[in-house]
Known about the structure:
By secondary structure, the protein is mainly β. The protein is built from eight helices and 47 strands. The protein has three domains: 3-246 and 700-753, no CATH class; 291-390 and 397-621, no CATH class; 634-699, no CATH class.
Amino acid sequence: xxxxxxxxxxxxxxxxxxxxxxxxxxxxxxxxxxxxxxxxxxxxxxxxxxxxxxxxxxxxxxxxxxxxxxxxxxxxxxxxxxxxxxxxxxxxxxxxxxxxxxxxxxxxxxxxxxxxxxxxxxxxxxxxxxxxxxxxxxxxxxxxxxxxxxxxxxxxxxxxxxxxxxxxxxxxxxxxxxxxxxxxxxxxxxxxxxxxxxxxxxxxxxxxxxxxxxxxxxxxxxxxxxxxxxxxxxxxxxxxxxxxxxxxxxxxxxxxxxxxxxxxxxxxxxxxxxxxxxxxxxxxxxxxxxxxxxxxxxxxxxxxxxxxxxxxxxxxxxxxxxxxxxxxxxxxxxxxxxxxxxxxxxxxxxxxxxxxxxxxxxxxxxxxxxxxxxxxxxxxxxxxxxxxxxxxxxxxxxxxxxxxxxxxxxxxxxxxxxxxxxxxxxxxxxxxxxxxxxxxxxxxxxxxxxxxxxxxxxxxxxxxxxxxxxxxxxxxxxxxxxxxxxxxxxxxxxxxxxxxxxxxxxxxxxxxxxxxxxxxxxxxxxxxxxxxxxxxxxxxxxxxxxxxxxxxxxxxxxxxxxxxxxxxxxxxxxxxxxxxxxxxxxxxxxxxxxxxxxxxxxxxxxxxxxxxxxxxxxxxxxxxxxxxxxxxxxxxxxxxxxxxxxxxxxxxxxxxxxxxxxxxxxxxxxxxxxxxxxxxxxxxxxxxxxxxxxxxxxxxxxxxxxxxxxxxxxxxxxxxxxxxxxxxxxxxxxxxxxxxxxxxxxxxxxxxxxxxxxxxxxx
Length: 763
């Protein structure tokens, strides 16, 4: 909502400076009349920059505006408004000097008087930042995050000044600008999805770069101490009282900087997709069409493997719930549904996508005195005859899993992406109990034997797609040339299973031109055991053969490793689509065909379940067996002054490291290349940002620097370097400043400043 001027007023200081203040408030339109502010003679406006140490980032300030209330509780409603909706702008001789929003936490006024009493209104420039949550996504430049945060704070400013930044991307290069650096938005959300506040975000971005942020003379200044020393305008402090005091600043013993990399590891996708209610007390045994509750249908499955027990209809092993609505996947083909298994006497709780399932009913056959047990069954989902096919083509997607964002990396060849889809393709009526010989024609035990003898390999057609953030192009992974290799040339090594990325030039979603295969087989015995039956994960895809596998491949028994996509200058989105048509079942002795459907021993008619959990996507190191990503913190430390008593410790959420940490959410990236930034340069040194920060800390805290306090002429300029008549060649930075605008004076604290002049033992 737009803010409109509601109150304004002006006064002349004792040094003939015109101060003007305006209070703006959110409204649907301009106020019909602007109220006039009246001020007391003493301290109508005091602006205070409280003390911040040299290594602190956000140098916030507060303004206390004291006005004379013309009537009872005239300004009370200002404190009942949401934070950020009321802004104070201060002009000095007609130019914007300070801006901030009303802090509604503190309000009091004399209650015994009806009018003409003083009311103090408190405003803050950066104070609101810790009340606002981060709300962006994807890769963002540091400048965009800063400007967006300032915009949400509702404060007014003329520009963001970066002229006093001395850090560069390379030795001897131009000073870096915040638009040159990018960060990952997911670094500012915890694992539960809770966002950091904007103060945490700005501090997290700026501190490792040794940057500070302050509002001065209508500008937002982003600077580092070395840049301030080397490039700022010098101003002489004009003392105007006799209360000056000289002292010394603090020194520190050891500096320790710890970067929490927040490295992206483990499964990146969601596991839970069932969004509907279930009730473990409900069963639907011997009901071919199941029962319904709250839009879901549920079926129960017998615990016993004795068909005569089924007549009792009380021995439920588990109940299977299905619903068309869910999360984590979209575009479900007709007949495909979300599922959830609810255990009772057996089974495990799980959820995913149901492609095919069967309901059963135990019945009596014969007379009441001479009967036998039999069964009926009903199938749901995708017809197996529609699923089977050849290498020649595949069909529309059965479902599309939600995408995950992959970050840009410095060296894509050092990483792999693992795609894992756990699948239940099973001939048993109850996949959690051993197979049994129930009745002729639907003999579970015989079906399972056939799967073990001839269903050693199952190939599932999928499209793994990747779209770079900065491009409309889509790339698709394929391993078709690998799985179609003749049996006489067995694929036996892990590196031979990786496949490759191909640009998708045609976008026919019903009949894609490029696709790959997930492969299900038993890595311990792919000659005599099935790759399915029970919940099984896909393995690195090979052609069907019975030869021994090399150790690395034999031990990689879950997931397909694919090359890390390296397209564009940033990250991108990867997603998995499981396709219909073109599914292949094979033993180890038959070449996969582009013309003939393999249906050895009628296995396509001999399964009762075809379920999938949501695909898992994980980033792994390209090391033996695909080792997990290192998520350890990165620490830097150095002595500053061994004689000092206290240490200084800084924990950061953004940072750099010399190597590794490829998936660190907290890394910096170059906006021109999208690559991770490993080193920066400042003060003649080129090293990690944390080492440069330690150099800055050493330069400021290794010796006791002179500190001066007292009353001086108001410091009304922008960011300046201050000199003092008795301190010869020393230069000072103002760390605290209380400005009385009626007297145009500052109660200040300034400390001697030094440029970066530290060298480590390794340099």
